[in-house]
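Can anyone check this?
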Amino acid sequence: MALCCCAIGCHREYRNIGAQRTYIAPSVKALQLLLEVCEQELDSLDMFINAKKSYYIRIGPRFNIDCHPLVTRDNRELKWCGSILYLGVSATVFRCSLSHNKQATYRAFNAMVGKVGRAASAEVMIQLFNSKCLPIRYYGIDVCRLTNTQINSLQFVINSCCTKIFMIKSNDDIRYCQDVFGCLPVADIVKRRTAKFFKK
């Protein structure tokens, strides 16, 4: 499968139009044909594809095989990229990436600790963590097939935040505190969210 994100501009200087379109095709060749059809339609609207701001990615088992590059009608090549961020979910060429969610979770947690500090009790901190940080951490995991390594990485982020909240370092103590405050293991949450997603 191939995916192309195109930045669309306008030929006329006084019209400040900018848009982005995403095209998905089963192969790079099919994506090239789709790109040509879109360029013909854009040309009739006096618009064009900005090759400098457009890129494409190949997803699936053949992601690393060399192929013919995508080109516009005026022979400008579109750029290959290694990862994309679409609707808040970061995808690399062969799997979903959780690094963006991880950074955002740590940022939210540190902002929460910076605002509340040690003035709040552990109960309040856990409630804030569950309502403000965990939704960021779990965003998009129900649409991705996660490996055990990725699930362990999710759990590590939660454990490190709990270490700061409870001021403990032992894994057994962290797990006990999480059980007392109703924090489910990440593997269970991933299973529940995935099952709920497929029921929709």
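Reply from J.R.: I decoded it. The radius of gyration is 22 Å.
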